[in-house]
Amino acid sequence: MTKDLTETFTGFLYDQGDRIGLLKQVLATLGNPDTDFSIIHVCGTNGKGSTSLMIAAILQQMGYRVGLFTSPFIGDVTNSVQVNQKPISQRRLTTYFDSLKQTMATATFNQQQLSEFEALFVAAMMAFSDEKVDYVVLECGLGGELDATNAVKTTMYSIFTKIGMDHVGILGDTIEQIATTKSKIIRPHNTTISAPNQRPEALQIIKKEAEQKAANFFDANDLTITFEPKASTVAYQLGQNQGQFTFRLQGAYQLENVRTVVRWLLSFAGDRPTIELDRLLSQSLGKLNIPGRFELISDQPRLILDGAHNVDAITAFVQTVNQQFQSQQKLIITGFLADKDYADNIKLLSQIPNAAFRLTTPDNEQRQLDPVILQKLLATQTGVTYPVIADPIQALKAAVKEAASQPDTVIFVVGSFYLLNPIRTFILENRSDFHVPNTTASL
């Protein structure tokens, strides 16, 4: 988040006092803007962003006006707050922040502080209300029960992507504890959907919470899909519901995400029998590009960005690379935050064949990991001491130069979004030096 937009907001207050109570009071003071639209709340560990973007794209294709709130943002902070896939302007976001600062300065709040994420969430609710959207797809931040997004009064859907081990010590120390924290976003009588292949202990907790809240519960495992890569088509079936649509998103994990999305759509479209589902899915998802999720940002040189930063996501990344680029030479630029499970991530990445690494530093001074630590870990795993290039842009330039002499080489940038952001921005600002596909969003 740019400094000029957040100069009076602090960094992290997730577990300090009753944050949800405070945010509810702030929203009430502002006239409860979060009640002016229906909310589809997306929570989980991996796949939240992709799932949210797909749902938003489908709703927009149906003719609805759709707000989308996602994090972490790719590119500029304004990309976290979108209406019909268009980011809010910096000017408008500044206006909302100024209004929020004035609210917090009143006697009611006595100069209490909001974190950057909390302020951005509230500003998003104000923007979506002013924009008179029909639906908001609301992606959780790191949590569930104590996440800022859980301050909304009610939701239409609670959707859970795959839950894994991340933010350990904040959300909990086990899958059961993390799933319990996340399950608390379920609201009475809403519709709750769980991703396929959910860990059994997490699925049981979500189902139990849904039952206690008298929420309708659906498991995306009930829906079967098959993918035909040559034709880029997905066939699906759930009971009598079956069909086929175009789907070109890369990454094996996207098939899990789209399975969740189709299960949501079958629920959402249940009382709308005139919807042509296959046409709708093809038109909304057939050309969708998701920034930072196995994103082909340049095809000359061939360069792919992926924000995988925990064990489940890295496992899926490795699987996809090995499926699609088994025999090709690979240059992998990577860097992680110090509070991630970087040792296990590096162990997984080292299993990619025909790969060489360039180790660099994410753009986050407080949480960045010294790439020399990754260098030593990789040396232990592979017997090779790979170069450290501390500046991400210099690491990119070095990899591009190296790949130029080996035409079959694919460059991957994987790890923290704080690593992807500066590299993606640099590539889009220097399009003349890269061949950026027309489908790439300029967020």
Automatic annotation (TrEMBL):
Per its record, the protein catalyses: (6S)-5,6,7,8-tetrahydrofolyl-(gamma-L-Glu)(n) + L-glutamate + ATP = (6S)-5,6,7,8-tetrahydrofolyl-(gamma-L-Glu)(n+1) + ADP + phosphate + H(+)
Q: Which GO terms describe its cellular component?
A: cytoplasm
A Pfam family it matches: Mur_ligase_C
**Enzyme Commission (EC) number:** 6.3.2.17
Q: Which family does it belong to?
A: Belongs to the folylpolyglutamate synthase family.
The entry's keywords: ATP-binding, Ligase, Magnesium, Metal-binding, Nucleotide-binding
Family matches, as NCBIfam families:
folC (TIGR01499)
What is this protein identified as? tetrahydrofolate synthase
Query: PANTHER family, from UniProt?
Result: DIHYDROFOLATE SYNTHETASE-RELATED, FOLYLPOLYGLUTAMATE SYNTHASE-RELATED
